[in-house]
Amino acid sequence: MAEESSANRQSVRVRRSPKLSAFVGVSAAVGFFGTLIATALFPADPSVGFGALFAYFSLYGITASVALGILVWLGLEALSRKRAKAIEMEREQS
Q1: What DSSP character marks residue 42?
Q2: What range defines the domain where residue 59 resides?
Q3: Per the structure, how many domains does the chain have?
Q4: How many CA atoms lie within 13 A of 86 on its CB side?
Q5: pTM more than 0.85
Q6: Is 1 within a domain?
Q7: Which residues touch 32 (CB under 8 Å, ≥6 apart)?
Q8: What are the residues whose beta carbons fall under 8 Å from the beta carbon of 12, sequence distance 6 or more?
Q9: Paired sense of beta strands 85-90 and 9-14, if any
Q10: Would residue 6 count as lying in a domain?
């Protein structure tokens, strides 16, 4: 019986990892609304229009904020790897 229980025990590492999709989604929304506010603060060129100007600056605003969000995620991911804990796992037969 003792051999059986030691065969069912295993050491595993457990960590809480941040979700990439959450960081990308939130940073894209922040970039979208940040670009909208920044574009609305200044008068638009009448020959171009507000919509085209906003769409053009959204390419840069959303891309930059998503890149920044991914960099923050990478930092938190590395931190979660450092804080991982080793625990003993035991399998149960049902």
Answers
A1: S
A2: 16-90
A3: 1
A4: 3
A5: no
A6: no
A7: 58, 61, 62
A8: 86, 87, 89
A9: antiparallel
A10: no
Q: What tokens appear for 7 in the block?
A: 């065969």
Q: Which amino acid type is present at position 49?
A: G
Residue at 76 is within a domain = yes
Q: Is the pLDDT of residue 2 over 70?
A: no
Indicate whether 27 pLDDT > 80: yes
The 10s digit of each residue's pLDDT in 28-77 is 999 999 999 999 999 988 999 999 999 999 999 999 999 999 999 999 99
Residue 46 counted as domain residue: yes
Residues paired with 65 in a beta bridge = none
Give residue 80's identity as a one-letter amino acid code.
S
Q: Where is pLDDT greater, at 31 or 2?
A: 31
User: What whole-number distance in Å separates Cα of residue 3 and Cα of residue 24?
Assistant: 48
